[in-house]
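Trying the structure run again after the queue cleared.
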Amino acid sequence: MVHAERGALIDDLADLDDEQWRRPSLCDGWTVHDVLAHLVDTARTTRLGFMIGLARARFDFDRQNAVGVERERGVTPQETLERFRLVASRRSTPPAPLDSRLVEEVVHGEDIRRPLGLTRSYPEQAVVRSLRLQTRTPASFGGAKELMGRVRLTATDADLTIGTGPEANGPALSLLLAVTGRKVALDDLRGPGVTALGRDGENGSTT
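Done. Tokens:
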């Protein structure tokens, strides 16, 4: 599923012009080009490499991500896209649950696609597994576990309900984006729990 998402994104980005590559993504401070460079970096990441990089960044995840983007960002977007093609079939992973790779590809795929007006019909299993992982991961590791004690998420396009409290319902993809801090997805949701999602969300990387 991870490889399929990488391949789909490569296809979607093949014909972007320079202005589209420079367009702000849903990640604060990152362009579409920057997010792709981040995906190259995470695809290359190994367990040992992740720990070494984190130590060099003084255990600051944001700093580690910034270094990775700078390292993998090509001189041109086309160079970065070619780097992504070369790593798309890799199976390496940082010391994290395997489904974290799905979260990366789905959420960052939307970070890129939504500002460009592109849409993808993601496999339900990929979105549901991503959402389940995010809602059982503590906030200190980029998840929304604590939030699930204050809001109940109900997917309208999948058999999925998570959490307790006021309900927020809508497409599973929008719920996933909301719990990863993408406030643009709140417009897709309904119910009294949407307020809690808006209050807790912070835009940024998923890692």
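The CA atoms of residues 34 and 129 lie 26 Å apart. Worth checking whether this holds up in the mutant runs.
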